[in-house]
Amino acid sequence: MSLYEKLTPPTNGEKITRDKDGNLIVPDKPIIPYIAGDGIGPEVVDAMRAVVDAAVKTTYNSKKEIIWFEIFAGEKARDIYAADFTEKQIEDMDSKDVRDLFLPKDTLKVITDYIVAIKGPLTTPIGGGFRSLNVAIRQLLDLYSCVRPVSHIKGVPAPVKTPEKVNMVIFRENIEDVYSGIEFEPESKDAKKLIKFLNDELGTKIIMESGIGIKPMSWANTSRLVRMAIKYAIDKGYDSVTLVHKGNIMKFTEGKFKDWGYKLAAQEFSDIVISEDEMWAKHDGKLPKGKILIKDRIADSMFQQILLRPDEYGVLALPNLNGDYISDALAAQVGGLGFAPGANIGDEAAVFEATHGTAPKHAGKNKVNPGSVIFSAVMMLDYMGWTEACDIIKTAIEKTVLQKKVTYDIARQLKDVTPIGTSNFADAIIENM
Ligand code: NAD
Asked: Which of 102, 133, 135, 356 to probe ligand 1 with, by most ligand atoms within 8 A of CB?
């Protein structure tokens, strides 16, 4: 009997596995599951696969090869997994069963079994009774860290004078904070019940007709996020990790994020990490060689810092909401979301993804920029340890952009440049390898 309800894994590749310390063991022909996604998803994902296949082939002389395994989420999943039900049966389903049609159990199981996956954007079904498939994927697979590297690609127009000074990697907490989904509609029974409890029992003075959202933040989720951020800084040679928070106002959530971040650093990385206080007290304000500076910044000041002193920051660790804001602000600073990659990473699995949405008005027109999902694939290859293939893709993209062979979103910011299509951009990158 097949392991999956409607999926048959390829037989010409092997699974990525882990050793006893949790390190990845990547075979020469790893099977990588992918979700094409909705809207512009299929075209940008096709372009990404073509670029990755060419880079792997060129780099490893056909010794290595990715074996792609299509799995489904979003509208394509619904077409396949709802086929066994009548419209009436679907109408009568509860929201969890509807979600299972858009995000089938097969898909989640394959990602867990194969450890590393990549996806295009997904439409959030309207009236599905759940917020977003992307949030569901992160929460159901416990992908607790949203990782966004941000740096400038030569030739991409940017709104600041020195975009090349940005070289930051954002680790945004993905599970809790005000995004945990615990909120109650104004004037609902539950909101009133909660407000009454808070006012009667805890002495607050909340207006009865208010909407209420809950902001849980825990040592458990903060510590594993900061651990991942510090390990990344060590592995990739960054010399600072900055805890970004709003702890001056929200002392027991954001403030704790900061305290717990320092505590984790002291408990587990005291041989390599030093604080700003210690650096000034013992080293005249200079970072000793081989050490990583752990510092913290208030979120509003950090928005100034990324513009005024970007080169003083490397790895950033943030709670969910601040992380969301700063990810897009930094992406804009180096020229927009068109080339911004992302990944959601947990201890069991990692899903790399385009950071933009499904852009329905451009779907099927061979028009949009596949750069975001291609750079997400570069992150994925790096995560797999295939770094030589990453380098070849990055260099080829830079060369292609400098030749002014770009899609419409970049072309319209340059003078007298005729845009090329999604697949043509991929072809140009491949030619430049
Ligand atoms: P969007 O990212 O789809 O579009 C915002 C703007 O950016 C549009 O003008 C669009 O044309 C442009 N754009 C997006 N991707 C582009 C690309 N690759 N190249 C050039 N231009 C590009 O955001 P939206 O309109 O707010 O959302 C549309 C749908 O996407 C919604 O259903 C939303 O839920 C979903 N969404 C999904 C994800 C995800 O899957 N990670 C993220 C954001 C939004």
From this structure: 356
